[in-house]
Amino acid sequence: MNESNGGLEAALRRRYERLAGRYRSTRNSRAVAAFCASPLNLAGLVIVATVTIAAVLGPIVAPYDPASQDLANRLQGPSLAHPFGTDQLGRDVLSRLLHGARLSLGIAVAVTAIRLVLGTTIGLVAGYAGGWVDEFLMRLVDVQLAFPGLILALVIAGILGPSLRNVMIALAVVGWASYARIVRGSVLSTKERDFVRAAQLMGVSRFRIAIRHLLPNVASPVIVLATLNMGTVILGTAGLSFIGLGAQPPTPEWGTMLSAGRYHLRDAWWIANVPGVAIMLTVLGFNLLGDGLRDVLDPKHDTAIEKTA
Amino acid sequence: MDCINVMNSTLSRRRLLGGLAAGGFAGLAGCASSADADGSFTIIPHMDPTGSGDSWGSWGGMTPYWTRVVEPLVWGSDDMQPEPWLASDWTATDDTTWVFELREGVTFHNGAEMTADDVVHSFEEDILAERGDFVYGWLHLEPGSVTKIDEYTVEFENTEPFSGFPGTIAHNMIDIQPPEADRRAGDIIGTGPFTFEEKTDGQQLRVERFADYWGGDVEPTELTFRAAEDVMTRTDLLESGEADIIFDPAKSRVASLRDRDDITLWSTQSSGSNFVSINLYREPTDDADLRRALNYAISQTEIVDTVLEGIGEPARGPISTVIDWAADDELPSYEHDRDTARELVERSSYDGKELSCLVKNDMDDGRDIVQILQSDFEKIGVDVDVEVLEDAAVSDRTDRGEFHLEVDGSQSNSPAADYIMWENFHTMGISNKDLYETEGTGLHNLGGEVDDLIEAGFQSTDPDEKREAYVDAQRRIMEEAVVIPLFYQEYTVAADANIDGFDLHPIDRLVEWRTLKT
């Protein structure tokens, strides 16, 4: 009897997985199609891909050493030798931009990853454990959200002292709460669903339920938030570096380059404008990508996908 | 009807448009200068003229610099000599005692006449009692050392022989106010050509002409000192006509300002100089060969010509040449020579580890200068880690001696610049004393004969003797490469071209506004 039940269960599971796989496959295809159907989404993807390639290959393809000074050729305008001109110390702006891309993107990825891991863990624990644990963690979230993010980051970076590492800490500390909130909300609704209850009845451990059943169900909004966050972090890093709390000389960080260039806005517009446009485009790219992902990953937008399909 | 006809004709339209344009330009031209015919001027110094707490708390939140509301007993002449001001004369009666005769007929802004009681009160109750220990070391006075001889005579007893005392108190901060003034509350009662009227912290303060000024006529009716510490903002405010006079416009825009007919620029060398201070008591900068190598590695001329846009003079020593005992030509020359520098590095104990170099984040051009230095040092095989920090963070590190190099500077705001030598290079100077007393070290003090020479210069009343001692001390300081001189400072003032009657002073904080007019 038991063996018979076991065989039935296995057959049912195989059928469920086939159906689920087919559904996922169909849904993913539709999502990709829906994403590609929007020119804005594609624009975001192209920008992010370009910046990523620049970050990876930049130090290899950069024509000059980003720290190499040539005071005799300072403040030179764009030319074949220096497509984006030279800065106030005669350094090649293009080379600094390419090296800066790796820094900016690296920091954005690192900070977003820290925020994501911290916020998701706290949200998962709060939502699944409930009770006083939920209360305590959510009050922590409330406290964090009560402070304006960039101001708090500025205070933290100010206390820790100027360095890129401290900027990363400051930005990571202030940005995890929104992840925690989103994850908690998703977990609260997901944990009441039948498959979670079934898993509980089958004696699956709480940790395994959280990782195998709850986490995948909150991934979509977290990915969207992370993508949108990348732009915010790049802006925050540039902002803190602009006011002197970030990269130390001669590190070619975009915000620092922008700050140095503001003294030459009239006689050498390229020093500030090149990193300024790079920051703007990168943030725009991540925002467009994030918006696009939200549209196709959010279950509420399934109807939109279906319409497109 | 005529009007309609006029407007209907093409020519008349042109005329009308032309007239409107001319009116517009005239209006803009009018807006372009806030210097009114009635004698009011807007001035922007390079630091916020307002501020309570630690900045200008002792003057009710008003800077005593530039505002000319309060005055000291002694002023500084254009050639950096002490000049009678509220005191008409002074004599040294022995090595440590000075007798100052007060000018008669000086009235405070409240109408009362200034007497010896006011001077004693200002020194004893305000300057010595309120402003902390640093004043004792600066003025070499202690509480109880200022006494009234008669209504117009005051005696000062220095803690040790100090020939530079009259020049040292020729400083805006050593001001005389009557006991009725409540400095902390902002009730400022000075003797200057202007009276304090109002202020908004972080924005501006306004002073008005004092009709009974002891020094004679005062041309301006009103001066407004605006806060704009950001150099670009300051320059924009001048160009837009919202300011009449600004100190230190952006160097990158000086050339374009010079080309404008509606703006005048003046420049003069100041009493300040910039240099890299080296920590003599931390490895490996305790090695004189390495310090000399760093001196040979850099080109002061290159820094002045590029980052400073030519505003400044390449320096050979730590003391500005406007100070009469500065020794520029007489100092050892470290001409830019990378080969010699590399040889010295090889000979030194330098082991390849990074040297730490501090620079304050509010230092003009500090980031660019330190990067040039970093690059120059790298070319001779010396790696430097640059840290751009807040003022307090730099002080914290230097107080503990946790650095190798600091891009630094010094400026005397009074004609007697003795304290630059004392505070920087004497073992008991403010830079070195604490570390010397706790660890037997210091920062930039060679000690021994250099201390003796500084003391001799500090105490000597004979100008030639004083100069000889200080020059010898500077020579030894440079032979041992205690500092890396960078440049002697110049400061620039940009103003509305219609303004007349403005004279530069080597100490920018001692400029006069009394003859300012349009």
Automatic annotation (TrEMBL), chain A:
Keyword Transport applies: yes
Cellular component annotations (GO), alphabetically ordered: plasma membrane
PROSITE patterns: ABC_TM1 (PS50928)
GO BP annotations, alphabetical order: transmembrane transport
CDD domains xrefs: TM_PBP2
Principal location: membrane
Topology with respect to the bilayer: Multi-pass membrane protein
Highest taxon above the source species: Archaea
Xref: Pfam families: BPD_transp_1, OppC_N
Transmembrane residue ranges: 32-57, 103-128, 140-160, 222-248, 268-290
Record keywords: Cell membrane, Membrane, Transmembrane, Transmembrane helix, Transport
Subcellular localization, as worded in the UniProt entry: Cell membrane
Family annotation (InterPro entries): ABC_transport_permease, BP-dependent_transpt_permease, MetI-like, MetI-like_sf, OppC_N
Domain ABC transmembrane type-1: 101-290
Family (UniProt): Belongs to the binding-protein-dependent transport system permease family. OppBC subfamily.
Protein name: ABC transporter permease subunit
Source organism phylogeny: Archaea, Methanobacteriati, Methanobacteriota, Stenosarchaea group, Halobacteria
